[in-house]
Amino acid sequence: MNAIAALRESRRREISALMSRESTRAALAVHGSPLLVLDPDRVLRQYRRLLNALPFIRFHYAVKALSHDTVIAALADAGCSFDVATGEELALVQRHGVCAQRVIHTHPIKKASEIVEAIEAGVRTFVVDNEVELDKFTDAAAGVRVLLRLSYPSPHAKSDLSSKFGVGPFEAERLVRHALGRGIHVAGFSFHVGSQLDDPDRFARAISDTIALIDDLEARLGVRFGVLDIGGGFPVPYDQPVASIEEVAARIRPVLEPHASRFDVIAEPGRILVGDCMTLISSVVGIAERGDGRWYYLDDGLYGSYSNVLTEDVHPMIFAERELHGEGPSHRWATLAGPTCDSTDVIAREQLLPDLVVGDLLISPAMGAYTTVTATRFNGRPFTPIAVIEAEPIGATPSSVRVPDVAREPAIV
Fold it and tell me: Do the domain assignments include residue 344?
């Protein structure tokens, strides 16, 4: 069995177990489809993996990946810190009792009013990448520090964030000198190698290059930097295998660990913590035979939970429920389309599926990151509800299982 086939089989077993859970069936019975099923235990499992693999790093969950209350509460209780990009995200984590000392504000571009509000709320660490943003911190409150965002282009990442943010080494030096002249405290540097980057060596090179830059600037400018923010970008296996948390850690740990006592090393994982925590259950609402074959129309699509396909070019696996039980041996190639009245809303082409009828369920795993947060209500479609499932006790029966809570509109606040 090749690696992709092994991943597909692993995903099939995973969703088969999920669909067999009484809490999942209860949620479907009450709420129907489409439905996102959220398992907070999976979030905590990933957080523990990060801690075990890189114990000298302080992790700040990137709230933008999935801003659901259950996720925030679970990570807050586990001791995780948070990375926010807006005042709304800051308010969200504070509603869960997270003190501002556990929050960093990493959006490089901010309104002056947003900075003032965050500082008044107690946030003390901010990221900038240009002179205009630096000047907004002139005369900032005591203890406020900034990190300069560096640029490390990674064209193989699904989202090459350095195409929009970050500076090179020469501009970084100029900004440090500018900050010194304004009395602004530059505490260190941050970078992001790109989202969904399956390249452990790129992480290691970015860390090495940043440490070399710090060594050079400290020697020539007579300053000291105490913070190193290595960003996020750890990949999630969607339709093909990727480097695991442990494999990425094995590559960067020898580069980073010798400096762990020198720097406050932080990271901003988002996708890797929540990618696997949600599963989408949708259903067939229409069927058509067209010139290029069979088309199935679903009740969720690119403008909804499958927005990750449109905005990030990731491709979650899609299983028919019939396949989970060995039914439907006759397969055919098909196109899957979403429910909106436009031609863009095509989820996947050339999907090998059993013959389906209206009402059949389709399931996609790994739908936790950048799905609900980038969904819209185009055509007046409601947001896909989210059902939070809990671990079921041994011997649970349908009557003993609580119907999962559902959030109808997965908003930030």
Answer: yes
Catalytic residue among 80, 99, 277, 341: 341
Full residue range of the structural domain in which residue 245 is found = 41-273
- When computed from its CA atoms, the radius of gyration of the chain, rounded to whole angstroms, is 23
Does one domain contain both 144 and 285? no
Is pLDDT above 70 for 169? yes
- Catalytic residue flag (residue 99): no
383 belongs to a structural domain: yes
Residue whose tokens read 């599926």: 353
Percent of the chain with pLDDT over 90: 83
| Tokens representing residue 318 in the block | 């899609």
- Per DSSP, the chain holds a count of helices (H) and strands (E) of 13, 17
pLDDT digits (tens, 9 = 90+) for 5-36: 999 999 999 999 999 999 999 999 999 999 99
Q: Yes or no: say if 266 and 228 are a contact pair by the CB < 8 Å rule.
A: yes
Verify that 237 and 335 share a domain, yes or no: no
- For the CA atoms of 38, 40, 44, 50, the dihedral, rounded to the nearest 10 degrees, stands at 20
Name the residue type at position 139.
D
